[in-house]
Design a protein that fits this description.
mainly beta, 7-stranded antiparallel β-sheet, 6-stranded antiparallel β-sheet
């Protein structure tokens, strides 16, 4: 693994409590909590996909430590003159090692996606994502569609009800995977016109934001 594909992120301090009414399987009945007092280590183990070749995806912890962000520099799907046949679809898979102190587990409660789209009248674009832990079934796939004409920033949010969150198994080390995809279709637009959808920017405010929820694991039986 090259050094550029292995970055360590330190998540420290308390996170804001999340209001909830249900308790996930494998976690304690104490309800949502703030983040563990010890630092959380998030390692970006591998990055794969046509939308995030090596060196074009960066991960950073949010200032309030309640989330982490992903920023891309070359994540763009397009159709039209000069575009390669495979350019209509771009994807990215992030493989994360999340080292959580003993006694705690986490889940992704919300993901906010942002980017820019230029879609001709009759064309459309899609943003798609799913999240899963290594060795566990994938969660339901989320898809957001945008129709032309569009020449503006776009935003899409995936929210999961607390009772439906997929939690990291307590006491086990399993990598967390995030799969995303951008797709553009010319539809009924002029085939000689270009349409594209991007999830990349040199502006740090245009990124993907993943919000974390925390839960205490059951105490070991004696």
């Amino acid at each position: 693994m090259s050094p550029s594909l292995s970055r360590t992120l330190l998540v420290g301090g308390a996170t804001a409590a999340l209001i909830a009414t249900a308790t996930p399987a494998g976690a304690s009945g104490s309800g949502p909590i703030t983040a563990p007092p010890d630092k959380i280590v998030i390692e970006l183990a591998t990055v794969n996909g046509s939308g995030c070749r090596e060196g074009t995806a960066e991960v950073a912890v949010a200032p309030d430590n309640t989330a982490f962000t992903v920023t891309y520099s070359e994540y763009l799907a397009q159709v039209g003159p000069g575009a390669p046949p495979t350019a209509f679809r771009k994807n990215c898979q992030l493989n994360l090692r999340v080292h959580v102190p003993s006694g705690f587990t986490y889940a992704i409660v919300q993901a906010d996606y942002r980017g820019f789209a230029f879609l001709q009248p009759g064309a459309w674009g899609q943003e798609r994502a799913n999240y899963y832990f290594q060795g566990m079934p994938q969660t339901s796939q989320r898809t957001h569609q945008f129709s032309g004409p569009l020449n503006d920033n776009w935003q899409a949010t995936d929210r999961t009800e607390y009772a439906d969150l997929v939690w990291a198994p307590c006491g086990e080390k399993r990598n967390f995977n995030i799969n995303t995809e951008l797709r553009v279709n010319a539809g009924t637009s002029n085939p000689q016109a270009t349409s594209f959808m991007a999830m990349d920017s040199t502006d740090a405010s245009v990124n993907t934001l993943y919000h974390l929820a925390w839960q205490a694991c059951p105490a070991p039986r004696t």
